[in-house]
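Step 1: inspect the first sequence and its tokens.
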Amino acid sequence: ERLVGSEMCIRDRFMPLFKLPGIHVPHHKNTDEMKAVRMPIPKEVILQMNMHIGAFAKPIVNVGDHVLVGQKIAEAGGYISAPVHSSVSGVVKKIENVLESDGTYVPAIFIETDGLQEISKDVKKVEVNSYESFVEAVKNSGIVGLGGAGFPTYVKFSIKDLSMVDTVIINGAECEPYITSDTRTMIDNLSDLEEGIKLIEKYLKVKHIIFGIENNKKAAIQSLNKLAGQDEKVEIKVLPALYPQGGEKVLIYNTTKRVVPEGKLPLDVGVVIINVTTLAWIARYIQTGMPLVEKVVTVDGSCVKKPQNVIVPIGTKIKDVFAFCEGFKESPFKVMYGGPMMGIALPSLDLPITKRTNAILALNEKEARLPEASNCIRCGRCINHCPLHLDPPAFAKALELNNPEELVNLKINLCMECGVCSYVCPAKRPLVQNNRLAKAELKKYLNVLASKKKKEEEKQNELSLIHI
């Protein structure tokens, strides 16, 4: 018996009888003991206007302008958006559309660096003395979800009634294979996390702060325990190393036993969840005034000569980052943003590091070639291992039959596209790809319904006016 997406799940009542959903994946945390090293400033950076979820940022500089490190070069394009700041000093060479990893074109600012790294006079300690000024500071920082989601962080903190929130969860699970950039934050930037916690306690006024971390990060756990020992509001929840432990709904459930219903936000269950590196950057910005201009990026994969964690100016071409890591042992079959479970394959090494990039991987053919799919054998592994107990074969059938109503009933929009279903499928079927297509088709269907409803309402209004 399953109650998908409901606030009460049958397995909550009989937890000892059920295995925790998720899968064990090879960790490949080859760089977890490697402190991040800073790479030289590249000759050029490319700063895209879509490094966040929501409306594109809008350039406020022109070709030929000289810009400085930390200078705002693009303003937020809407409420759900974020400004962009220059990661280098140099000259704006062009502003034009570039090919994104998903095949679309997005505007970008190209800056030719001068190597001086002169800092803008706007970079100075930020005055924060109220909840409103705290949210405004986060907004001005350009900080977005640095775990890969890219949601503008200030929006998460824009809470109408602070009494709605009693818990902040800091996501340090980092459950994807290879990636260790968050792990290094928890080890190397403890003072920033300590300041971040103080800011949350002061301005969000929460009673409980939970660090969610997997048990395969021993050094990071030891580091965080120091924080917990100094603050009774802070709790370290050490969780099984199961993928996708870092998924938002999964982590909320496994740390608080609260279920975020379909179509709802963590705020609806009294929770704000934030990535650990995002929190560290907020503290750093308020202390120094330096906005989000660089990232720690894990560089790894079977083709990389020298895997390591690298401090990279945002906008650096990934080929320059690989070159800093001594290039390739063999020609890569696939290069990716992010980890192998939810990462995005790249069409070119000229694409840049963005705010959302926490890793770049270069994989050989043995690791990366997709196996040939065969027919579904109805084994149910995809359902049993799905962290939300969804039904991927049913999604695929509804998509094949062009039945959007059934996709609604099956709760396709709960799917987080974690890839667990594809990973465990013995028939090697592209289930997560089918799920994405099904969600896209459902979105089209709902847009058509909304358009029809709007036209019908307009027609009824016209008839009412005629009658009057």
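Step 2: inspect the second sequence and its tokens, then contrast the two.
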Amino acid sequence: MANLTIDSSRIYNFDVIKQTLPIKNVSSINEYQIPEERMPKVVDQGDYECCVACTISEILSVFAKVNNDEFEDYSISYIYGKHRDTSSTSTGMLVESALNSLLKLGSVPYEMFPKLMEMPTVKETVNKRVDLDKFAEQSKIKGYCQIRWSNVAQKIENMKLALMNYQIPILAVSKKGFAGGSHCIMVY
């Protein structure tokens, strides 16, 4: 498989990226799962509204596995408190805002900031721990692709292409199927 890397900090258009991928046709694929060694943990967010942070944390762990051949558990709370709109103190996160922030800083190992807290406490606590930012620098993302299509069949085809070529989980927002409304999940 070709070395699939993103070389600059920006948002990529998946329609352009997919032209360069080794696997180009997945129309006959009806079932697929990423390799077992790249499977993320499933995290229970409990009573906290941090599904975006949980998903990002686990995908960062998979990146660590792919790059270093070992899992690194990342702090959900650091992500939840650090990577949100600066004026936001309500619960939950916006995916796009969090991903844009992750272009500047990643997360820290779970052991450095383990306690899960809700807004606004987690934001205040993380902001007091600027010493952690130098560690978060090491896991910042280099870029990401958005797969946005109103055509559901085309969206699913693009997701299959991404899964089969990159073999890592995809962050997705499910707007239906969960009692509380939209929910951030991993597709693998």
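Step 3: confirm your contrast with the notes below.
The longest helix spans residues 51-68. Helices lie at 14-17, 51-68, 76-82, 95-102, 121-128, 133-136, 152-166.
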